[in-house]
């Protein structure tokens, strides 16, 4: 099978690899689509994502496909099933796993990070992370289930109520997912801050966003929001998120900043406004919710998937040579 192998820092090779073998509890998947994201950019550049990737390795952690074969102990899927695969595999035995916080697992492994992933014609995964797709969810949209499931985890960590006014900062793929998801979770108003007029306009016209702020020329109203989701990961946007918080607000710090970055905030505000500043890491047990958001039509990702790439274009994408990308997926089969 054809695979894009990360052979070193910023080094890719397309190789012909043997079909991977499966253990009794594993599934072999014919890849349909593999989404690529900022995490792949970090892994490609030699920085860790949710965990470190050690070359040679096949990246691709946002995968959909069709089951090719199953091990003898697998009961939840069968050959021919259309599936999406949660990349994250937890040990089930550490303190965090035993206290229902598996995302913090001390021995996290992941398809497309610590074991070969979906930037290949086939890949394997334990059956416990393989989810069958409803008929009305396309394999292409299904490549977005992993990022959606990360957003669902972030939303799960907030206490959302219908009276709240929410602000999403960031008009990238994740920010645009959040703009829709917080509405699906019942918040009555969501506003969006970003830097691209066309994306902001689309979110007002298609996705029910009320007010938009292009922060290259407009400022975000301060002390105005009950829920703020920061989905960029820069110190400036993190500071904007806290500044936008009214009394009692919850701020979700979802964006991933550079490892050495810090942002500044007024410490008295935390006390006086009784703020909650909440981090969010990956996607524990949120795949079912992510799939249901697509199945129900409450979340529309098709307009956000701007690019369908071949394996030979992934390096150019990660080098920033492909412009105007909202979300890119690599097509391997269908
Ligand atoms: N916590 C998690 O589990 C998790 C999961 C997935 C992604 N993330 C992080 O979420 C962030 C967003 O992901 P993404 O895929 O949308 O990223 P992305 O690659 O699309 O980039 C971020 C986007 O933010 C927007 N942006 C840039 N500067 C901005 C500014 N000053 N104000 C407002 N918007 C600005 C741009 O539209 C840009 O495209 C990243 O930091 C990513 O690493 C976190
Ligand atoms: Zn990703
Ligand atoms: Zn564990």
Automatic annotation (TrEMBL):
UniProt keyword terms in alphabetical order: Metal-binding, Oxidoreductase, Zinc
Origin superkingdom: Bacteria
PROSITE patterns named in the record: ADH_ZINC
EC numbers, comma separated: 1.1.1.287
Enzyme class: oxidoreductase
Cofactor: Zn(2+)
Protein name: Threonine dehydrogenase
């Amino acid at each position: 099978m054809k695979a894009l192998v990360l052979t070193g820092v910023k080094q890719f090779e397309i190789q012909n690899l043997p079909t991977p073998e499966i253990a009794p509890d594993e599934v072999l998947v014919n890849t349909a689509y593999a989404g690529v994201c900022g995490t792949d950019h970090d892994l490609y550049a030699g920085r860790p994502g949710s965990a470190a990737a050690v070359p040679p390795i096949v990246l691709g952690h946002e995968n959909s496909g069709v089951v090719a074969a199953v091990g003898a102990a697998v009961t939840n899927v069968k050959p021919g099933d259309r599936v999406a695969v949660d990349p994250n595999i937890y040990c089930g035995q550490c303190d965090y796993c035993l206290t229902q916080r598996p995302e913090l697992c001390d021995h996290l492994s992941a398809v497309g990070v610590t074991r070969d992933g979906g930037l290949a014609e086939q890949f394997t995964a334990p059956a416990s992370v393989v989810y069958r797709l409803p008929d009305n969810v396309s394999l292409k949209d299904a490549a977005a289930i992993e990022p959606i499931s990360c957003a669902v985890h972030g939303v799960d960590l907030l206490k959302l109520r219908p009276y709240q006014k929410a602000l999403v900062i960031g008009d990238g793929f994740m920010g645009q997912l959040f703009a829709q998801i917080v509405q699906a979770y019942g918040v009555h108003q969501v506003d969006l801050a970003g830097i691209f007029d066309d994306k902001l306009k689309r979110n007002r016209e298609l996705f029910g966003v009320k007010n938009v702020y292009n922060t290259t020329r407009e400022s975000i109203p301060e002390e105005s929001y009950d829920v703020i989701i920061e989905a960029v990961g820069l110190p400036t946007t993190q500071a904007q998120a806290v500044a936008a918080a009214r009394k009692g607000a919850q701020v979700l710090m979802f964006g991933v900043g550079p490892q050495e970055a810090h942002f500044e905030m007024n410490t008295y505000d935390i006390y006086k406004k009784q703020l909650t500043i909440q981090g969010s890491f990956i996607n524990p047990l949120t795949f079912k919710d992510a799939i249901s958001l697509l199945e129900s039509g409450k979340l529309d990702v098709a307009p956000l998937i701007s690019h369908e790439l071949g394996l030979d274009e992934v390096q150019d994408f990660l080098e920033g040579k492909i412009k105007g990308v909202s979300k890119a997926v690599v097509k391997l089969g269908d």
